[in-house]
C-alpha cells in the first residue's frame, strides 16, 4: 500500500497491518483554507489502486528485484506482479471531496489506516520488522516448497537491546541453549518460553568460526526479548535478497515466494503468462488474506494481467468486483498458486471465487 500525506509517502502491503518500510517525499495534495487561514482537516483517508512491480524484473537501477546468488537461476518469459494500494492521508475537506468525486478512490476512517497513539518510531520499527518477516516467510515457503535446507541469519541488532555488542549482522545462529536452530521461529519460540532476566546461550557461525554468546534476556511489552531481527536464508553459499526496499509488508509474501520458485525451479513456472496476485505467506506455504483487494484487482487490470491470484479468504470481496478480461484463481496455499498457473497456461479451468464463497 502506498500511503501519501502532505510530506511523506508510506508503502504498505495491507490496510490492517502497520507495515512497510521507508518514507518517500510525495507531492502535497491541495488543501482547503478557511477564512481564518486554517486547513480544514478531515478524519478520513482515501484509497485507490497503487503501482505494481514485477518480482521477476529489475529495479530502476538495474538490479534484480529477487536476486539469487550461489545457485543456477532460470530465465522466464512471464511476469509475477505484486500489487499495492495507494492511501492518501492528511486530507483537507477539499481533498476528501475531490477524491470522492473521482470515483476511483474510496474514503475510509483514518484510524483504519494509521492507528491512534502510534509514534513514528513505533511505525518505523513495525515497518522494518514486518518487511523482514515477509521476506523471511517468502524465502522459507519457497525453499520448503523446493526442498532446499535453511539457516537463520541475523539481519539487524537493535540499538540498546540485550543483543547489542554481542551479535553481528550476518551471524548464523546454529544453537540456542543447545537446541538446533534452522528457522527463526526456533529462536523466537524458545525465547518466548523463558523469562526476562534468564541467561540464554547462543551458538553462532561468524565467518568460518563458531562463537558462543551468553545473553541475559531483557523485557519489552511484558515479554522476554533479545533484540535481534532474523531472516531465513538458504544454507551454504546460496543467498536470496529482495530489492524493493521501499515496498514491503505482508501482502507481497506470496508473490515473492513465487518469484524465488520461478528462479530456482528448472523450467518456466510462469509459462510466459502475465500474472498478478497478492496474499500473505506463512513458512508452511499457507496464503492469507490482505486488505484493499478490489483496488489491487484494478491495478492488475491496468497492467494487462491475464491471471490474478486471490487469497481464498478474500473471495467475499473478489466476487463483488468485475475482473474484466482477467481470470481469477482462488488460492489457499503456494501449491494452489503453482497449480493455478499450470492450469491456466495449459488452457484448463482454474478454481475461482464464486458467490458461494461469500
UniProtKB/TrEMBL annotation:
Coiled-coil residues: none
Transmembrane regions: none
Gene Ontology biological process terms, A to Z: proteolysis
InterPro entries attached to this UniProt entry: Lon_proteolytic, PDZ, PDZ_sf, Ribosomal_Su5_D2-typ_SF, Ribsml_uS5_D2-typ_fold_subgr
Positions of the catalytic residues: 251, 296
Catalytically driven reaction(s): Hydrolysis of proteins in presence of ATP
Protein name in UniProt: endopeptidase La
Native species: Corynebacterium pyruviciproducens ATCC BAA-1742
Amino acid at each position: 500500500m502506498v500511503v501519501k500525506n502532505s510530506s511523506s509517502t508510506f508503502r504498505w502491503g495491507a490496510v490492517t497491518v502497520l507495515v512497510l518500510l521507508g518514507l518517500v517525499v510525495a507531492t502535497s495534495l491541495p488543501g482547503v483554507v478557511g477564512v481564518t487561514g486554517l486547513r480544514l482537516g478531515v478524519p478520513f483517508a482515501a484509497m485507490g489502486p497503487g503501482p505494481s512491480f514485477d518480482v521477476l524484473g529489475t529495479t530502476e537501477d538495474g538490479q534484480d528485484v529477487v536476486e539469487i546468488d550461489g545457485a543456477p537461476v532460470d530465465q522466464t518469459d512471464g511476469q509475477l506482479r505484486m500489487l499495492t494500494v495507494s492511501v492518501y492521508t492528511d486530507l483537507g475537506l477539499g481533498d476528501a471531496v475531490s477524491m470522492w468525486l473521482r470515483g476511483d478512490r474510496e474514503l475510509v476512517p483514518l484510524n483504519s489506516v494509521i492507528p491512534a497513539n502510534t509514534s513514528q518510531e513505533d511505525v518505523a520499527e513495525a515497518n522494518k520488522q514486518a518487511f523482514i518477516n515477509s521476506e523471511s516467510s517468502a524465502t522459507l515457503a519457497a525453499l520448503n516448497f523446493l526442498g532446499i535446507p535453511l539457516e537463520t541469519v541475523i539481519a539487524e541488532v537493535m540499538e540498546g537491546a540485550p543483543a547489542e555488542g554481542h551479535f553481528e549482522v550476518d551471524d548464523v545462529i546454529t544453537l540456542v541453549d543447545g537446541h538446533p536452530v534452522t528457522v527463526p521461529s526456533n529462536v523466537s519460540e524458545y525465547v518466548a518460553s523463558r523469562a526476562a532476566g534468564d541467561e540464554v546461550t547462543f551458538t553462532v557461525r561468524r565467518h568460518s568460526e563458531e562463537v558462543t554468546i551468553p545473553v541475559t534476556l531483557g523485557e519489552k511489552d511484558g515479554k522476554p526479548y533479545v533484540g535481534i531481527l532474523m531472516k531465513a536464508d538458504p544454507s551454504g553459499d546460496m543467498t536470496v535478497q529482495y530489492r524493493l526496499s521501499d515496498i514491503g509488508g505482508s501482502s507481497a509474501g506470496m508473490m515473492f515466494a513465487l518469484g524465488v520458485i520461478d528462479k530456482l525451479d528448472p523450467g518456466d513456472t510462469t509459462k510466459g503468462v502475465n500474472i498478478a496476485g497478492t496474499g500473505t505467506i506463512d513458512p508452511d506455504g499457507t496464503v492469507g488474506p490482505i486488505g484493499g483487494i478490489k483496488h489491487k484487482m484494478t491495478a492488475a487490470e491496468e497492467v494487462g494481467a491475464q491471471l490474478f491470484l486471490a487469497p481464498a479468504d478474500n473471495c467475499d470481496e473478489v466476487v463483488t468486483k468485475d475482473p474484466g478480461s482477467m481470470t481469477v484463481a482462488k488460492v489457499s496455499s503456494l501449491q494452489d498458486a503453482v497449480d493455478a498457473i499450470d492450469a491456466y497456461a495449459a488452457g484448463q479451468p482454474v478454481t475461482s471465487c464464486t458467490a458461494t464463497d461469500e
